């Protein structure tokens, strides 16, 4: 298993740095225990693995390389997809009580030996309750997990108003999981030219662009044309109506206020991502604006970027500018997981003005 993961890295042109190699060793040992358990029908459950560290250090890549080589009944799920399926199950049952939630968890854990859970994070006390139910049920059924997260267990649910409520679950995580930190020096999403990137960026997502100030000339060079008022539509992906500027068979054009400033949820973004493979979000405000009232909108924007990156959707962001998520924000309005979002948005190209785009086009011709 370790040789296989190392081979996968070499095939992509990089070597595992020390913390990645240590994580690969832990995963290989875990895989050997899972295989031995299946063959001998032993009751002892291999200890789960919790991979955490800064953004872009190859956690998901390592997990996926291991997942592809593990010979066991397995299921891989992303954090947002987990909650979409959870809420879909409770919606279909007509109830969000414990029975409906338990049924959704039962479906997720059915007929598997290992559950892989990518991008594990908790920012909401309600989500924390669902996570606690999942972990408790997995432990009862002797199903180990492999988890990736940008957060050490003690940093989950960082909101001081709710953190204490999640401490018992944090202690359970530390008890049932082997905590492995991946903390190499480079964010591989930001420095792909260094020759040591774990895997390729999502192809469609990384073909998108951040466009400022969004003049007709800029947009036209990219094949984008602002919709007319007559093209506006109202979509209801789940339960929340959203006014969009255009919804062609493959393209969704929506304003930041309509997408993020209302009551939309991650379930809405997931449903729309299944229908539209290119998104244009315009009227994006500057992250440095600092209006405290915008904090919930920025968190929804963060969730949308997560979904579009994970589903490999082409994304164009248009705003008057500056649209710089690396700049130091004022007022503390941006999401607590800003580093992950900034890393993902760094994959997008930039069109900062008409002259810059013209120079880029000339260089590529």
From TrEMBL:
The keyword tRNA-binding does not apply. GO terms for biological process: cell division. CDD domains: AAA. Keywords: ATP-binding, Cell cycle, Cell division, Nucleotide-binding. The keyword ATP-binding applies. NCBIfam families: ZapE (NF040713). This is Cell division protein ZapE. It comes from Paenarthrobacter aromaticivorans. The lineage of its organism: Bacteria, Bacillati, Actinomycetota, Actinomycetes, Micrococcales.
